[in-house]
Give the backbone structure.
Amino acid sequence: MFILSSFVDLVVIDPEDFSKRTVDALEDQINKKYANKVVYNVGLCICLFDILKVSEGMIDHGSGSAHVNVEFRLVVFRPFKGEIMTGRISSSSMHGINVRTDFFEDIFIPHTSLFDDSSFDVKENVWIWNNDGNEFYMDKNELIRFRIEEEAFEDQLPIPPHMQDDRVEAERKPPYRLIASAQQAGMGLVSWWTEDEEEDGEEGG
Amino acid sequence: MKVLNPRVGMLSNYEVLQHIIATKERYAAAHLASSAAAAMKAENLETVMREVKDYLSHTAAGTQSAADIDNFMTAMSSHALEKAELLQIINERPDSIAELDCIIEEMDARFDENTQAELLDIVKKWLPAKPKEPEQVNGD
């Protein structure tokens, strides 16, 4: 689910932070820039893992800030293709199910990647799996296990000024999106497959 | 900004959780030592660290220790499993053969039933159970 990625970047430390230890000031600046942000074709950056190399600081003659070239590694969220993950159902539509983890919102399971006998209940906005006459509801906020199939990075271009006011921000595609599937035995709602230690091989339902 | 290596290596959920906990402890210690203003961290950092920590604490990583993972890896070394499969087993801690089948590719072709049961036993023996979910739905 998480990987380590190495970057090199120019970090600017303002004079007011000169009282901090250099590594702390660098860490704060790097985290401020990268935490919870998606880097195109790399993934969702979580936080600094460690600093590998720091160059001598060049002082900027205008502001007096130190410009430092830093090589560092970040913890990045980027599940690989085929990875199994657990998340919660955030919403359902006739196109499929939206799943979120606490820190990532854009996971989508298209309806074609659910179990074959699934149907959508328009009134309640839920997908239902019909298995041998038993109906299993895929309710909101339920824990669901799925497999990552594809990832999609979207390069976010700035909105041109003439479109800024009328266009709703929500129309923009998310910078990082995961497409998943849940159609193998063991996947779908976690509660369907839990075996209690006392009972043997019973599908919870 | 330049990406040197987008994939230096993979981290287990346990390692990420421990890293976040250690980082938070460092910040808390620094907060005690210096002024409150110096200890203020960026909002995006606080948010993502809290959310990742919440998520991981409720997965198998929340109950694991470094010793558990070492013992598990030693016990599994005699079986031919891919690195990615071992990582997923540690992260997801499967409870049943069905879950193991999702993680291990072509499990029926590579391992016979007895070996499959043996693999599941190693998982249950060395990796602690996932933390219990706080609310019981429909209490069954």
Observations:
- Chain B touches chain A through 49 residues (CB under 8 Å).
